[in-house]
Each structure stands twice: as C-alpha cells, then as structure tokens.
Specification:
It contains four helices and no strands. It has 106 residues and is mainly α.
Length: 106
C-alpha cells in the first residue's frame, strides 16, 4: 500500500512556528520605553544639551532597529533586497547631509 502524497509532503515540509504575540508585545513595550526615555531626556532641564542630542540620536537608532526587526520583519529570511535598498538610501542621505554641511561651511 502506497502512502498518500499529502502525508509524504507533510513529513518532508519544514515545520515553521509562527511568531507569537509575546515577541510583538515585548517589542511594543520596548518601543514605548525608548519613546518615554527620549521624552524624559527632553523634559529634564538640568541635563547638558550635547548629551541630550547624542542620547536622542542613539535612542532613535535603537528605535529604528526595533521597528525594522519586529514590525517590518527584516530579521526574517527573504528580505535581502529590502535591506539593500534601505542601506542604499541611508548611504545616499548621509552623503547628501555631509555634502550640505561642507557646502555651507566652505
């Protein structure tokens, strides 16, 4: 007796577990925490402004990574073209900003 094609295909297929809501809730809480820290830094009046600027940039970069990894699913396979496109955009924007800074200073 031969086995049916559905059982043989089912046994050979990879069993992928979908992401649970636990990871999404943790990412959401982390995003809210980063936003709250940024807000608290700006509202605190006695902190050095240069330190606030640096911390806001660091927190914004962390926020971007959280958003891209968990909400845009960039950590999963098959997003190579999207990652390359985003990195190309980042390089172009940084190049434009650096050129504009040198242009205004020159």
């Amino acid at each position: 007796m031969a086995s049916s094609p559905t059982t043989s295909n089912h046994s050979n297929a990879k069993q992928t577990k979908p992401e649970g809501s636990k990871k999404h809730i943790i990412a959401f809480i982390f995003s809210i925490l980063l936003t709250f820290i940024s807000f608290a830094l700006v509202m605190a009046g006695e902190i050095n402004t240069n330190f606030i600027y640096i911390m806001l940039v660091v927190l914004a970069i962390l926020q971007v990574f959280v958003q891209m990894a968990f909400w845009m699913h960039m950590k999963d396979r098959g997003h190579t073209f999207a990652i390359i496109a985003i990195l190309t955009g980042v390089v172009v924007v940084f190049t434009c900003v650096i050129m504009a800074l040198f242009w205004t200073r020159w």
